[in-house]
Amino acid sequence: MTPSTLISAFAEDVRHYLQLSPRQLPSMYLYDALGSALFDAICELPWYAITRAEMQVLEQHRAEIFSHLPGVTRLVELGPGDGRKLKTLVEGTSDPLIAHLVDVSDGALSRAAHTLSDALNLRVVTHQAPFEDGLESIMREESGDPTLVLFLGSNIGNFDLRGSAALLQRIAASLTPSDAFLIGADLVKPERDLQLAYDDPLGVSAAFNLNVLLRINRELGGTFDLTAFRHRAVWNAACSRMDMYLVSTRQQRVRVDAVDLEFQLREGEAIWTESSYKYTPDGLITQLENSGFESMAQWIDHDAGFALTLARTS
Ligand code: AVJ
Question: How far is the CA of 276 from the centre of ligand 1 (A)?
């Protein structure tokens, strides 16, 4: 997919989702260059423990992970972030590997490729594309050798139940019996911990969320007044997820010139920008099994509440 196709998909989605009730914006658009940098900053916050936990689990168990993957030569990571997790994993083997990185964010891809550039046994190829498209075009090229597909950092959390089932089914369908899938998932934990992870005292999470409006202003000629919105994060127990909103602090009119859209926001009206689903270890395995996988191994960090699960097609 070319960058211009991605930009018009952004415009199309902004026009569509901002007119729904409640108004929404798909969370994938949080990740432009600035959004990806802000997310990397979130991962450094003391209140957002899952990135460090996942790094530690990967470091502790990487030899065991590779022992489940005899002959693996190809890695495919969906949403590599800054690349440090993959780097930690590949430091567990000296076998030559090729890593395909798939992301919609150009900035994230170049940062990840840079992080991985000094891993000597690794050749890196980047694909600027949505996860499914990128994965399927990579898997169409026969490698002959086993492939490990990685979906780390609880990226799965941004998908609702149907969306995650659909994504997992497409991943399962793209794998052969000698391939494997490694998935990280944030676990259900005390509400106060989740609240601080998604609405931190430094305001980085708020900046990360607000940036999507800045991006619409910059790329699509939007007129959002960023000072007239506040970040709101709430635990939705019924759906086992955190919901993120941008709440208008006053009545205001907004235009988005590139898509010829104009609308009014009421004081207190919210734009729903992200949901982050939380799993139980068994719930994740059930979800994998319902999507065409069987679980091979699972490692859990109980302090941070994070699970790493290795699976193959059933
Ligand atoms: C990248 C989807 C794993 O849900 O925790 C962090 C994104 N949003 N803080 C998450 C996010 C606000 C993050 N994921």
Answer: 6
**How far, in Å, is the centroid of ligand 1 from the Cα of 242?**
10
Ligand 1 pocket, Cβ-based, cut-off 6 angstroms: 42, 153-155, 157-158, 198, 205, 208, 274, 276
| Ligand 1 atom showing the smallest separation from residue 39 Cα | 6
The pLDDT tens digits for 158-171 are: 999 999 999 999 99
Bridge pairing between strands 252-256 and 261-265: antiparallel
Q: Which of 151, 154, 209, 210 is the best mutation target for the ligand 1 pocket, counting ligand atoms within 8 Å of the beta carbon and taking the most? A: 154
- Residue 29 scores a pLDDT above 60: yes
Contact at 8 Å (CB) between 121 and 152?
A: no
Q: Inform me whether the pLDDT recorded for 1 exceeds 70.
A: no
For 15-28, the pLDDT digits (tens) are: 999 999 999 999 99
Q: At how many degrees (to 10) do helices 131-140 and 161-174 cross? A: 10
Contact criterion met (CB below 8 Å) for 105 and 178: no
Half-sphere exposure of 166 (CA within 13 A, CB side): 8
End-to-end alpha carbon distance in the chain:
31
User: What are the Cα distances from residue 41, in Å, to 48, 81, 82, 206, 208?
Assistant: 10, 11, 11, 12, 9
Q: What residues contact residue 252 under an 8 Å CB cut-off, 6+ apart?
A: 225, 228, 264, 265
- Among 25, 31, 36, 39, say which to mutate for ligand 1: greatest number of ligand atoms within 8 Å of CB: 39
CA dist 314 and 308 (Å) reads: 19
